[in-house]
Amino acid sequence: MNDPTPDAPRTGAQPFDVESVGVESVGVDPVDQAPSDERPEHTRGRRRRRRPGPFTLLALPGLTVVLGFAGFMAATGRLPSPWSEDSDAHTTTAGSSATDRVDASYVPWLREAARTCSLLKPSVLAAQIDRSSGWNTDPATLSGTVGIAGFTESQWRTWGKDADGNGKSSPRDPVDAIMALARRDCALAEDVTRLRTRGTVSGDLLDLTLAACTVGTDSVTRAGRVPATARTYLTEVKDLSARYRTFDREENANPSTGKASGVLAPPVTTLVISSPFGSRKHPLTGVTKLHTGVDFAAPRNAPVSAARQGQVVFAGMTKAYGNRVVIDHGTIGGRRLETTYSHMSSLLVRAGQSVETGTAVGFVGSTGLSTGPHLHFEVLVDGAYTDPMPWLAVAR
Description:
By secondary structure, the protein is α+β, with helices and mostly antiparallel strands. Helices cover about 30% and strands about 15% of the residues.
């Protein structure tokens, strides 16, 4: 076949299908490629209209439909438009995408539930629910448990109530489940607080409470701390709680936190610090961990007095702390305040007794895990250990 170009006119050549060799695909009309004297008379002197190609006939209608559908969906709010001013909202972080899964009507209930006890925060409750069910309200997807908080029937009989007043108590009702979860957590917190007060267990109160939630109080008691079997649960809940911190903001919007300085009187006459608050290697066990209080060096049988008025909630012998007294001073500036006095040689108070600032509670000793006479003094704020020194009214 001859080359169909203007330099080599076709003479006597058989007609051929130009589309089969792709000429139409680049937008070239084959009639315009022929010399003008070889064009049919009715086409000479004017440009021949191009025939629609395969792209026009097939692809363009489909593209039109797709664009039209996308425009409709964007206009109705069912599809995020890439040109929307709010397009950044759809490239969310892990934290914001987590909160997006929570019905906005549940957030006030999370905050209300967190007020059940000082230990809880809305973010912790939300994290527990996320860990349990991923906020999935379909009970068919949950194995062996019911509702977003994952209660069994026996657990619900203990903790379940009609929280929203709709006349029915059900673990499938998210509001009922949220409030029941808080009641359970706070009850477990009381249990482990008593264990920690008696020196049976040691560790952060929230960690111990979460451990009790997943493996039971008995397992925590046997371990004397957070059991290894509960570590994964703790890690996952804490990671998730960071994503729900925005739920805590209302509670912190107008914080009423009292000043620490001058709240407590010195528990011994002379405050000579032999071991400060903070991480240290224990002189007897060799384990490096948080030293939860301050050790004040003092002569054996020197008097130990209450740092503030309150009620004695524990007074007795413990394995690690020796003779120990715990005093609850109630709520100060919106925060629950407790003090402890340990390693005493003997006690002068009993549980349930009310004391005033300066009341003698015992005498300096070296009972329990101790290397010599001293007072181990602790301050707990909302159940968490804190450095006692800023709370003490001492000359600086």
